[in-house]
Amino acid sequence: MKREHRHRWLPVACLALLAACASTSTNPPTPQEGAQYPLRVLAAPPQSGKIYRIDAKASSLHILVYRGGRLANLGHNHVISSQSISGSIWQGAGMDQSGFEISVLVNELIVDDNAARAAEGEDFPLNVSDDAKSGTRTNMLRETLLDGARFPVISIQSVRLQGDSDGAQVLAALRIRDQIREILMPVTLRFIDGSLRVKGEFDIKQTDFGITPLNVALGALLVQDTVKIKFELFALAQE
Asked: Which residues on adjacent β-strands are paired with residue 92?
């Protein structure tokens, strides 16, 4: 039982989507609560072109949170997943006229689902207890972390896209809580029979969004600041 209580100390902090190997900007803005996206011009849907709507059931989003410190074996790594991804992706005449806007419901994030853990391999053993999952979820949604009561949505919106479907580069504005950061990330896209599949992964730091990861006993047990986000989005063309 003591070990399960320690598991509760391992919360998660962040989420986003679209990419692989993202990096935050050198001097990111620090908006206050309720702030809008940066003044930089955001990509907008074209007057003509194709609009794709994300299919949440056919899409996957995994947030990987890792334990650390000398007592790391007292906890476990987490996979936080979502089945509530929504939004649209638009395809203009060129990549520079394309973009997206996507949101995820914070209070519907899923903690340590067996299928999600199995997909991520040996660092994520199966059958985390219900008690441990509940403790992690409570920590994740509390005021000092994601604060799901005040900030129920995580959103990301494109600023600029360039390249091609095999190597697109995306500059996007990611909002978690009341903090907005620009991230730069490569993505791969596949257009098949009226559908679009976007795949990638990237890292963010919790502290970049004003979240302080767990640190117990002078770092003997901690949650690593860096969170890995992996996704595969499936979207259908709208008539």
From this structure: none
Tokens, residue 238: 């709208």
Beta pairing, strands 85-91 & 50-54 = antiparallel
CATH number at residue 36: 2.40.128.110
CB atoms under 10 Å from CB of 114, counted, come to: 12
SS3 130: helix
For the chain (length 239 residues), average pLDDT per consecutive 10?
Answer: 42 33 36 46 68 96 92 87 94 87 96 97 96 94 93 93 82 93 89 91 91 82 91 93
Number of domains in the chain: 1
Residue 168 · residue 189 · CB < 8 Å: yes
Residue 197 CA, chain-centre distance (Å), reads 17
154: left (phi over 0), alpha (psi -120 to 50) or beta: beta
Note down the domain range covering 125: 2-237
Structure tokens at 231: 């996704």
Q: What would you measure as the largest C-alpha separation in the chain, in angstroms? A: 59
